[in-house]
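Researcher: Sequence recovery benchmark, item below. Answer with residues only.
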């Protein structure tokens, strides 16, 4: 168990059926790189990718809501098998509400992970708001949990582990890697 995971946080994370994530500053370190030709480059953390796959395998729906449009983001989400990608969405709370409207998922069953002001309405709407230490101070202050790992450096994996732990699924998820039966 992570030292910052208490009973209140566990109770919130135990209810999660869907996690929605921002990209820049959460799945990446928030920096944008451009080549001389104008091509955009981003770095995604492999730890986060496996964590999201483990969540999906455990039956948690994963969605990405981002204000920017990026072919790199689309490729990464396709590679991970993430079924819900909403790009170019500045009003992330509205996007999140649209996403769950037909899913029979209540706000307290949603986790939202973001780092900046456009994420704040969605983060406070969700039952579990998660931010990162390199996020904007007000977002960190309003979040239910701020990861130890910075955005782009395993923060998403930490959030995935939190949810799996709270739902008593983390040990079974890790068991095959430890040579134990799940």
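Model:
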């Amino acid at each position: 168990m992570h030292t910052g995971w208490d009973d209140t946080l566990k109770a919130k994370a135990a209810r999660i059926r869907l996690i929605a994530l921002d990209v820049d500053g959460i799945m990446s370190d928030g920096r944008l790189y451009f080549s001389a030709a104008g091509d955009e480059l981003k770095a995604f953390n492999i730890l986060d990718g496996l964590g999201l796959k483990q969540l999906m395998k455990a039956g948690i729906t994963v969605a990405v809501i981002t204000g920017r449009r990026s072919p790199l983001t689309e490729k990464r989400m396709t590679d991970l098998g993430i079924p819900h990608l909403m790009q170019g969405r500045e009003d992330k709370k509205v996007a999140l509400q649209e996403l769950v409207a037909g899913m029979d998922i209540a706000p307290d069953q949603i986790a939202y992970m973001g780092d900046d002001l456009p994420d704040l309405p969605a983060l406070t709407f969700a039952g579990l708001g998660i931010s990162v230490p390199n996020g904007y101070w007000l977002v960190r202050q309003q979040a239910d949990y701020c990861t130890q790992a910075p955005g782009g450096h395993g923060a998403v994996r930490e959030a995935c582990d939190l949810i799996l732990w709270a739902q008593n699924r983390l040990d079974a998820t890790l068991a095959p890697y430890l040579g134990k039966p799940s």
